Every structure is written in structure tokens, then in C-alpha cells.
Amino acid sequence: MGKAFPDSGLDIKTIEAVLNDLQEKFRSDIFAFELRVIGGGYQFFSKPEYHNTVAAFIGQKEKKRLSTAALETLSIIAYRGPITKVECEKIRGVDCNYSVEKLLEKELIEISGRLEHMPGKPILYKVTQTFLDYFGLNSTSELPKLKDVLPQPDENTIGEVPEVISDSLPSSDSGAEV
Fold first, then answer.
1. Res 98 pLDDT > 70
2. Could you give the domains of the chain?
3. Which of 50, 54, 60, 68 is the right S-S partner for 32, CB 3.0 to 4.6 Å?
4. Helices and strands (H and E) in the chain: how many
């Protein structure tokens, strides 16, 4: 096994064991913070019960919330990305220009390339590491599955999936994570 830090004599297993010990240590109620695995690395976070105190201490103002339109657009990009704006608009049924601009400004999405084989070479969007960090995810594969968040059908609609949802589900050959 290779050394994590060549001059230190530490290997990956030793470092992982130390990090696991630290995670366990900081679970104790005497600490106001915890160590989490996030974005492929480790970060310290204040525990939820200390949020208001920490926010007051650092002078954090209440964060502006995303509009419903921006949240819908962000969700589509998170589940279907990389995806074009036109595809988002087809799923939502309305223009997404403003939402995409705001999500780019907030660095929750980014341009991941272009569809070179399509006319006009449309831009592809995907979620950013900032998005993953904010929601405490290591990757989009950790997002809840759609079947877990969609309302359960009643006996009159068993087997039916709303058209907008079924149209937005990736086909098996698209490579998108759901």
C-alpha cells in the first residue's frame, strides 16, 4: 500500500483509522462540532443544535432562499445533469433563463460542456461541489430516489406516473443518475 504522505510514514489505512476515531470522538455531547465526510473529503461542521449561536457569533444574516422556480430547475439539473437549458424548460414547461442565471451566480450549478453534435451546440449544466457541500452530499448518487420523494399513488392512479415526471426520467442509455 502506498504512503499517503511519503515523508511521514503514514499510509491510507492509518489516516482513515485516525479520521474515524476523530469522528467518533466529536460525536460526544461535549463538542459543539462534528467531523463529516463530504465532497470526497472531511469537514468540520457545527452541530445543528448550535446553529443559532454560531450564526449570531459570526454575524451571519439569514440566507436568502431560492425561489420555487430556481429550486425546481436546480432539482432537474441535480437529477438529470449534465443537461441543457432547453431540456430543463421541456421538463418544467416554462422558461428557465432567470433561474439558471441565479443558480450560476450562487455557484450551485456550472457549465460542464457543450453538446457538440447538436445544432447550436447547446451548453450543458451540472451541479457544483458547492451544491454537494451545501446539501452534505459526496455525489449526486446520494440524492434521494424519485420514488422515495414522489407522493404515493392512491388506488385510482396505481401504475400511473405524472407525464412531466415520466418525461423527465432518464432512459437507461442516457447515463444520468437517478
1. yes
2. 3-57 (1.10.10.10), 68-168 (1.10.10.10)
3. 50
4. 8, 7
What CA–CA distance (Å, rounded) separates 101 from 88? Answer: 13
Secondary structure in 3-state letters for 54-115: HHHHCCCCCCCCCCHHHHHHHHHHHHHCCEEHHHHHHHHCCCCHHHHHHHHHCCCEEEEEEC
Neighbouring residues of 171: CB distance < 8 A, sequence distance ≥ 6: none
Asked whether the predicted pLDDT for residue 136 surpasses 90, the reply is no
Phi-psi region of 68 (alpha: psi -120 to 50; beta: other; left: phi over 0): alpha
Percent of the chain whose pLDDT exceeds 70: 78
Which H or E run contains 21? helix 12-25
Q: Are 77 and 125 in contact (CB under 8 A)?
A: yes
CA 102/CA 92 separation, integer angstroms: 16
* Other Cβ atoms closer than 10 A to 62: 6
Percent of the chain with pLDDT strictly greater than 90? 37
Q: Tell me what pLDDT residue 5 has.
A: 64
Contact yes or no for 127/108 (Cβ under 8 A) = yes
Q: How far apart are CA 56 and CA 40, in angstroms?
A: 29
**pLDDT tens readout for residues 10-43:** 788 888 889 999 999 999 989 988 998 877 788 8
